[in-house]
Amino acid sequence: MSLLSNLIGKNQFRKLSFSTEKPSFSPNFSFQGKIKINEWKKRSYSTEVKVPIESIKQLRQRTLAGYSDCKAALVAEQNDLEKAVEWLKKKGSLKAAKKADRVAADGILGLITNKERTKGVITELNCETDFVSRGERFSKLSSEITEAALLLNEEGKQVGTPNNTLDQLTQYNSSSFSVADSITDVITKLGENVKLRRSFSLSTDPQKGVIGSYVHRVQEFNSPAKLGKIASLIAVEFEGDQKHRENVIQLSNKLATHVVGFNPQFLHSKDITEKDFSAFEAAFNKEQQDKLADKNKKFNKQRVIEDVVLLEQEFSLFGSKKVKDVLAEESKKLGGNISITSFIKVTCGEGIEKKEEDFAKEVEKMIQ
């Protein structure tokens, strides 16, 4: 028995001595050991640039970019603040380019006149949603662009009608504000496509003219420019004593309000061509095809004139009097002829085809 016991003992010894199985260390010991080794390696061999919190704070104050973007920019540029700013601009340009094809049918209008009330401009800045258009950052951009348009206009540069030229406005770059860079910056931060779509300007004789203005659906924002969804400018001349200039300005503002409410398309009846009348008649005939239309009603050119010509329209703020009659009365009252030379009405988003989306189908696509 002792010999057998000795043999068994030797076999067990051999098994323990020459086993190829991995020793069974405690899982906790193994895990903690790996963590410590990794931490030691990271401390010893890490090449990642250390970014001071103060540098991130400074970059955020300058660019308003997010924390992670600022840190990534500083890491990429070895904590060089100026290069980090350029890095963020390039990143913003790439983001803007990706969003350029998206429809921007919402937005806001900016309107401003100079102190003398002899020049006025309207700009249209578009975005994708009403939510963004009402935000402070978007409103600030619209206001700044509108102010830049007025400055250019006062310098005699073309920023609007008759050719709706945007080149000089989009290239505007002062020591404190750049139109192109600011649009790119807002696209980056808000995540929507933003476009400067249109700009209009109106000027009048500084000796005897004034510019009336009105903005409808006003968006409250503390800035020199007024913001809203519908805007109008109207040029009025007064050939009398300029001590009544303030009265003429008040009248011109009422006229601008009327333009927004009644949507005239012409100033004088002589401005309507036969081609225009044909288009109005075609529209009338199309309406007559409706089952509920009055079949006894006939197309009437005089009725068209009263509907679309500013001077022939009833001036709502003066009862049933026509605009031309009110001008005649005010001219007599102030001792000098008052006349309208031109006007502009702009509605935000007009003419842009909005993409209709089926919400249920969009959700269905997402879960497939």
**How much is the average pLDDT?**
82
Shape annotation: elongated
- Strand line-up across the major sheet: 3-2-1-5
Helical amount among residues, as a percent range?
40-55%
**Major beta sheet, specifics?**
4 strands, antiparallel
Secondary-structure-derived class: alpha+beta
Low-pLDDT residue spans: 15-19, 25-33
Strand content: 15-25%
First-to-last CA distance: 75 Å
How many β strands by DSSP? 7
Kindly provide the radius of gyration, computed on alpha-carbon positions and rounded to a whole number of angstroms: 35 Å
Q: Determine the number of helices (DSSP H or I, runs of at least 4 residues).
A: 14
Which H/E pattern describes the elements?
HHHHHEEHHHHEEEEHHHHEH
What does this structure look like?
The protein has helices at 2-18, 27-45, 53-63, 67-76, 81-99, 130-133, 136-154, 167-170, 179-190, 245-262, 274-288, 301-308, 323-334, 359-367, and strands at residues 106-113, 119-127, 195-203, 209-216, 226-228, 230-238, 338-347. With 368 residues, the chain is an alpha+beta fold. The strands form 2 sheets. A 4-stranded antiparallel beta sheet has the order 3-2-1-5. Mean pLDDT is 82; it is low at 15-19 and 25-33.
